[in-house]
Design a protein that fits this description.
- Helices cover about 50% and strands about 20% of the residues.
- The chain is elongated, with a radius of gyration of 25 Å.
- The C terminus is likely disordered.
- The chain contains 12 helices and 10 strands.
């Protein structure tokens, strides 16, 4: 698999003109432009606004070949493949090397934009008004890119990239809201999958269920799944996993005579400190007091001492 460390090399391999900036490239889609890349990785971020006419590209685990008016994002060292991709006139592909961000606020902030980890079929589908906003930002970058660049150019371009990402974040939230019915089904499917995992005693054999494994079962990327669940429930996938497991632990502490460590290990927790942290994170002090009373009645409160501390967070389950 080829790895591109420079934009110039990527341009040469696809018979594109040399980029105007060694760390920044803006490709405006023109008639007859066809892109072809065998499987590769690079040191660049990509933001694309495109209308696919023919061909496809692959990134992550999925194929993108038919949606109109969509934005896609990739991050450095993600595996990409582009096959006979022909785009309708009017789209843009912005590529910028990760070092283009050095010393900027965006360098620190870009990691929080989780859509760089989404799969191809989780692209952002724009409404017409949204597409106009995004197009204007691309055109603003294009103006700076094509002009004689000076000491102000980089900052102006970075401001516009930052705006692109902020608008994308807003529009993704709108997309989640518009697909609330689908999100509701996602929550149900996720909960059912998690319940089956617990009920089938996979915890002892396989350990704690990971977000990645559950997302794969639902044909989603971990980031997209967590964001969909967060919008619908207010909690991430990891938080919902912990809540489900701690709920089971609470019931077993009340109903069985098992030592707390036995319960923790049976739920897939490999060490008591992690279990204690999760318990303190998701059980209210009132619930802990009730459990302590119950365990005292059973004369087994000592098994609870390792997690019965005073630094609980008041998050109820």
């Amino acid at each position: 698999m080829k790895h591109y460390s420079s934009l110039s090399e990527m341009h040469r391999d696809n018979c594109l003109p040399e980029p105007e900036h060694p760390m920044l490239s803006l490709i405006r889609i023109t008639p007859g432009l066809v892109l072809n890349f065998q499987e590769f990785t690079c040191d660049c971020y990509m933001i694309g606004l495109k209308h696919i006419k023919a061909g496809h590209w692959l990134y992550g685990r999925t194929r993108f070949d038919h949606e109109k008016g969509s934005m896609v994002f990739w991050k450095p060292r993600q595996i990409i493949e582009i096959h006979n991709l022909e785009l309708e006139e009017g789209g843009f592909i912005l590529l910028f090397h990760e070092d283009f961000l050095l010393g900027s606020a965006l360098q620190r902030e870009i990691s929080r934009y989780t859509f760089f980890d989404y799969e191809a079929d989780e692209a952002l589908h724009l409404a017409p008004k949204e597409e106009k906003i995004i197009t204007r930002l691309f055109e603003s970058i294009d103006t700076e890119y094509d002009n004689n660049q000076d000491e102000f150019s980089r900052n102006i371009i970075l401001v516009n990239i930052d705006s692109l990402l902020k608008y994308a974040e807003r529009f993704y939230k709108r997309q989640f809201i518009n697909r609330r019915e689908l999100s509701g089904k996602t929550v149900t499917a996720f909960q059912r999958l998690l319940d089956d995992f617990i009920r089938q005693d996979k915890l002892v054999k396989e350990g704690l269920p990971s977000v990645a494994a559950l997302a794969a079962e639902l044909n989603m990327s971990p980031r997209y799944l967590s964001n969909a669940l967060k919008l619908e429930t207010g909690k991430t996938a990891q938080e919902l996993i912990h809540i489900a497991l701690i709920s089971v632990a609470k019931n077993r502490l009340r109903e069985s005579g098992d030592h707390v460590s036995e319960i923790a290990y049976s739920l897939g927790f490999e060490n008591m400190s992690y279990f204690a942290w999760a318990f303190r994170r998701y059980v209210t002090p009132y619930s802990v007091a009730k459990l302590t009373t119950c365990l005292l009645a059973k004369k087994c409160s000592s098994c609870f001492s390792s997690i019965n501390k005073d630094n609980y967070l008041p998050i109820s389950i």
